[in-house]
Amino acid sequence: MAGLVGLVAGALWAMLPAYVPNNAAVLAGGGAPIDGGRTWGGRRILGDGKTWRGTAAGTLAGVALAVALNAVNALVADTVGLAAGVLPVFPLTAALGLALGAMLGDIGASFLKRRTGRERGASFPGLDQLDFVVGALLLSLVLATDWTLATFTPARLAVVFVATPVLHVVTNVIAYLIGAKNEPW
Ligand code: CTP
Ligand code: K
Ligand code: MG
């Protein structure tokens, strides 16, 4: 797997533990909101769309996926002799950074949405598609600094920032069409 295919595969593989948490949170959501119903400046701090259960389930799903991807990676490398480094291997610190960071990025976006007068479920183009990527990369950088710097090369980052909004729009439209989500964003 050389050249462009390897680059795109490596970049998306590295971000998978950050892609899954939001979808897992949608499926697991409900229960007590993180902000406990509290308001700030007349509006909810975060809103009912950010719950403890959704956040915990999303984080666990992302970490579990990273562990599973490591197993698949080892299997594939043994079977087809994939060159080491094409697909990243996740240390647990990186897995947690990507998964929890994605959730925190999404929560930060809700905070900004409430401060700018947007009700729960309102769209905020740009922020909606990239909040979790920025959160994931930042927390991964904090918890697994060397791994993050070595894994997210400028070329892979470029792929991530171009491909993620496209993937995000597609998965959310699908989630909306199958009735898992109230809005197609
Ligand atoms: N969810 C959750 N906990 C989270 C993130 C999401 O429980 N940390 C669940 C909620 O049921 C939420 C649904 O997933 O309604 C969809 O997530 P999202 O689109 O991020 O939330 P919204 O309801 O649109 O709220 P907001 O406007 O604050 O983004
Ligand atoms: K969101
Ligand atoms: Mg939403």
TrEMBL record:
MF terms (GO), sorted A to Z: CDP-2,3-bis-(O-geranylgeranyl)-sn-glycerol synthase activity
Catalytic activity: 2,3-bis-O-(geranylgeranyl)-sn-glycerol 1-phosphate + CTP + H(+) = CDP-2,3-bis-O-(geranylgeranyl)-sn-glycerol + diphosphate
Topology class, membrane: Multi-pass membrane protein
Cofactor(s) of this protein: Mg(2+)
The keyword Transmembrane helix is assigned to this record: yes
InterPro entries, per database record: CarS (IPR032690), CarS_archaea (IPR002726)
Keyword Metal-binding annotated: no
Subcellular location: Cell membrane
One GO-annotated biological process of the protein: glycerophospholipid biosynthetic process
EC number(s) reported in the record: 2.7.7.67
CC per GO annotation: plasma membrane
Enzyme class of the recorded protein, top EC level: transferase
Keywords: Cell membrane, Lipid biosynthesis, Lipid metabolism, Magnesium, Membrane, Nucleotidyltransferase, Phospholipid biosynthesis, Phospholipid metabolism, Transferase, Transmembrane, Transmembrane helix
Residue intervals passing through the bilayer: 52-77, 89-112, 132-150, 157-178
Pathway entry: Membrane lipid metabolism; glycerophospholipid metabolism
Family: Belongs to the CDP-archaeol synthase family.
Functional note: Catalyzes the formation of CDP-2,3-bis-(O-geranylgeranyl)-sn-glycerol (CDP-archaeol) from 2,3-bis-(O-geranylgeranyl)-sn-glycerol 1-phosphate (DGGGP) and CTP. This reaction is the third ether-bond-formation step in the biosynthesis of archaeal membrane lipids.
HAMAP family in the record: CDP_archaeol_synth
Designated name of the protein: CDP-archaeol synthase
Name of the gene encoding the protein in the UniProt record: carS
